[in-house]
Write a structure and sequence with these properties.
Length: 243
């Protein structure tokens, strides 16, 4: 397995660092800088999420991963369907909903064991959860200020993406974890064009109607940890600065 990090991804990481520094040095530009910082950070995280799927699948025998360029962390390689990088970005920008993507096309027939197929599905959400923790810890180190608010919002989005992605719903990774253990007939029924259509319907329902359901679930998950959510809401207001 060979990983070649693309210049596009390195450029995103550099832009993420620059906009973070600008939030500290140029508070007058807080709204647009918060938007750019969180959005770029989100795109970076989706790339890492998809890379985790690809790297795990490649390790377990899917030779097509390297041929398709999924191990480059190049965001361009993750734009191949409506459920890929494009829709999660649109959902985040317009709806404030951190939807998981589905950009890496896995050849499960090349992966011998069912538990390995499950781990391939689990790898992406595991990275997303880790990034949520990293962003939260970075926010604590940053202290009070605009950068902390933006990092807390990014951590919140990562946590939301993890929660949604682990739902046992076709098209989401939570379903991918249990799918290998389902009867062959069920797997065939939920494959190909049927799955693509179902994904579009589910994404549309979540995008237009899911916010009222998602936020109470997120509040229930966060409440036991006694986390101050005020920085998240301040960051959210700046992220949607045009409202």
């Amino acid at each position: 397995m060979k990983t070649e990090i693309s210049g596009n991804f390195l450029g995103l990481v550099a832009a993420f660092a620059v906009t973070g520094a600008a939030l500290v040095l140029w508070p007058q530009g807080a709204p647009i800088l918060t938007f750019a910082f969180v959005l770029i950070g989100w795109i970076v995280s989706v790339c890492l999420h998809e890379y985790a799927h690809a790297a795990t699948a490649s390790r377990f025998g899917d030779s097509s991963i390297i041929e398709q360029g999924y191990l480059t962390l190049n965001p361009v390689k993750y734009i191949n369907s409506t459920g890929s990088l494009v829709f999660p970005v649109i959902a985040l920008v317009l709806g404030g909903i951190a939807l998981p993507g589905a950009a890496v096309m896995i050849r499960t027939d090349l992966i011998r064991n069912r538990w390995q197929q499950s781990l391939v599905s689990l790898a992406g959400p595991a990275i997303t959860a880790l990034l949520a923790v990293v962003a939260f810890l970075a926010a604590q180190i940053a202290g009070a200020g605009l950068l902390r608010d933006a990092l807390m919002l990014l951590a919140f989005f990562e946590l939301m993406a993890f929660v949604l992605n682990m739902l046992p719903v076709p098209g989401f990774d939570g379903f991918g974890v249990i799918e290998p253990y389902m009867p062959d007939g069920v797997q065939r029924l939920l494959s190909g064009k049927r799955l693509a259509v179902l994904n579009l319907i589910l994404f549309a329902l979540i995008f237009f109607m899911g916010y009222r359901i998602i936020m109470p679930i997120m509040a229930m998950i966060i409440s036991p940890f006694d986390i101050d959510m005020e920085p998240v809401w301040r960051g959210f207001d700046r992220f949607h600065f045009w409202r």
